Amino acid sequence: MSSDMTMADATASNVSGSTDLLQRYGCGPIHFTGTRDALYERHLMFDHVVDPTSVGPRERYEAVARSVRDVLSQRWLRTEQTYERENPKRVYYLSLEFLIGRSLANNVMNLLLDPVVARVADEKGIDWLALLDEEPDAGLGNGGLGRLAACFIDSMATMQIPAMGYGLRYEYGIFRQSLRDGWQQEQPDNWLRRPDPWEVARPQESVEIRLGCSFEVRNGTFAAVPGRPSSLLGVPYDRPVIGYGGRTINTLRLWAAAAPHALDFQAFSAGDFVSALAERLSAESLTRVLYPDDSTSMGQGLRFVQEYFLVACSLADLVRRFRRTNPVGSPTDWRALPDKVAVQLNDTHPSLTVSELMRILLDDAGLGWEEAWDLTRRTLAYTNHTLLPEALEKWPLPWFELLLPRHLEIILEINRRLLDEARTRFPGDEGRIERVSLIEEGGPRKIRMANLAIVGSHSTNGVAAIHSDLLRTVTVQDLAELYPERFSNKTNGVTPRRWLRLANPALSRCITDAIGDGWITDLSQLAKLTPLADDGAFQDAVREAKRAMKHRFVAWLASTNGIAVDPDTIFDCQIKRIHEYKRQLLNALRIVVLYNRMRQNPDLDMVPRTFFFAGKAAPAYRLAKVIIKFLNNLAAAIDDDPVVRGRLRVVFLPEYGVSLAEKLIPASDVSNQISTAGYEASGTSNMKFMMNGALTIGTHDGATIEMAQAAGEENFFLFGLTADQVSGSAGWYSPFWHHHNEPETRAALDLIFSDHFNRNEPGIFEPLRDALLTGGDRFMHLADLTAYLEADRRLLASYAAPQDWTRKVIMNIANSGRFSSDRTIAEYAAEIWDAKPCPVP
């Protein structure tokens, strides 16, 4: 597409005469009448039946969003028609999370409609930034797992790979986070309170899902009724996934649960309202909330049914598509399934896909076991995202007996054959047999979902080189030795469209001015910046871009949160889910040490710094909530101390999500990636920071290792133990040694435990003492603190030399090309899915 005529320019011309231009630039025969803003005016007036002069910002947002959807609708239809006609192999990506953020600005960008939208906004007096804030972040995900899924479906559409994402349409996100006296408070995240203009309900494509029991109201709560089968209705809601340039528009299909039967009108009319509504309420509750609190068996059970509901709806839908384009006239026709369908399981949540596909092939298709098993394994692939044993899902076997008895029969038969194979390969090794088994014995019997996913698929991949190695050699070593050919690595990536072009317009312009805009769809082109690392003019441009984004963030923070921060301070950030292994507490200890240094030496010369934290703690994770409280109390104590005020600042930003990350990451100078080595699977915030010109202070963990290799360790600030040292620490590590022998460590801990940061709330930080000392410091905070402080010293020395610092920044940006999700998806497509692009005419 030429730089002087874009799809946006075509749309911006008089729309009645623009059909030829829209066809030329990829939109197909779109027929409009009126001027370029006719769609907006029509939606503004008729959708809400109001006078356009009296509408509010929400109505304006919906009118703009629906206008954009109108523009893409024909292309969306044509994409699906092309797939139906060409019958390519399709990828189906199953994930319990899709953390897509807001859609309007991203969709406008990917459709190249920026100029026309800017023009209409100017003519109509629309405050564009205020209008964007009317869209809530979609409550469809929580952390890196969901954001990765969102980046992946963006890349698949941009690369014209026939694909569909499958997830659940949660009415409420995990929760909205606020702070009260420094403590996390959880409120409902009712992100669908207002109509979502992007989704399209498809009730005509609903599917019925059968369960082995039913539910009724007993003593005011829902209770399972064994032996009385019931069913749920899965109603699909589709959202467009727009590839950059608008050539391909794939679909994210989200399933909402509904009751399959009409209201029991007789019971309702007789006054038995609860019984009449019980079935409907129990069904609709299934997709009410993302990640119900799993600290109770009821919450765990709801999560289990959510996972089956996702799997069953998605497989019913993709099999329906397969049969529509590959008519099944005899059992042998099913042999085409692995040639036409690739199913990727995003973590263990969709592992029931193995038993559900087997059920379909055995019971519905009438195939024999061997053929069904061969087709299942060749169709499915599994991505593991964790090395934490407690995060590898295991579901009680009685739940299968109650809800999914046929699945239990299939899983037990899979396991019988698996153990026979393992005993043949490794005779006499009963310890190995117990470890590879799909059934965990030695207590309440449970089904190991990760083992099921590995055994029932042809591919298992980790998401960073170190993670994949540890997965294969430690976490599931026995299965990897049984099936070594199935294991590989696919290092994660992030989409440069949202995380650089959209989030960081200042740096994007700087890069494009230097090397052109080809990097937007080929991030490896950023390597062209390497020769400019020492160029004075380019260094100035990069510094100016960072300054612009810092000022933009400061203005936004002041207007939305009432927090004033100094843009001339170092913005030092750690933004991610609050968890002990991610070690926000280690960062806090670093700050306490710096605070102590300044208190002891008020004249200490130190570059002023603002430390930003953001992230949510799971509602039942008490220690994570204590860490949030400590960070906020630390912030208050520093603000109240005249010795350090203006030189140190700690800010905890509530309600962390995609939209906040899009604002903070481009403004950041320093990225903290300090997880305990061997615990972080990959990380993706590290990649976003890198391509936005923030330097990393981090441990030898996750993808940070590969990032440092790409950019050069001299351009990173690495520190701390290696994964091998951590795994071998059980015999020698004692946190008390560090307390006794490291003066700054001891002073920091003693200050915390003296109630200095909680004078009016004595004892509230005792859980930190247990975590760091008496409990053994499982995640080795104290082992890495001194090395962290030394890396911090090196970081400050580099920052004090602007040319050296900016050179490091440019080298990081220039070498971030490998960490595009486009590269990751290309590897999945070639090495796991055997999927090819299918261009839409």
Automatic annotation (TrEMBL):
ATP-binding keyword on record: no
Assigned keywords, A-Z: Carbohydrate metabolism, Glycogen metabolism, Glycosyltransferase, Phosphoprotein, Pyridoxal phosphate, Transferase
Pfam families named in the record: Phosphorylase
Catalytic activity: [(1->4)-alpha-D-glucosyl](n) + phosphate = [(1->4)-alpha-D-glucosyl](n-1) + alpha-D-glucose 1-phosphate
One GO MF term: glycogen phosphorylase activity
EC numbers: 2.4.1.1
Enzyme class: transferase
Keyword Endoplasmic reticulum included in the entry's annotation: no
GO terms, biological process: glycogen catabolic process
Highest rank taxon of the organism: Bacteria
PROSITE patterns linked to this entry: PHOSPHORYLASE (PS00102)
General function of this protein: Phosphorylase is an important allosteric enzyme in carbohydrate metabolism. Enzymes from different sources differ in their regulatory mechanisms and in their natural substrates. However, all known phosphorylases share catalytic and structural properties. Allosteric enzyme that catalyzes the rate-limiting step in glycogen catabolism, the phosphorolytic cleavage of glycogen to produce glucose-1-phosphate, and plays a central role in maintaining cellular and organismal glucose homeostasis.
Family named by the database record: Belongs to the glycogen phosphorylase family.
Protein name (Swiss-Prot/TrEMBL): Alpha-1,4 glucan phosphorylase
Species: Azospirillum baldaniorum
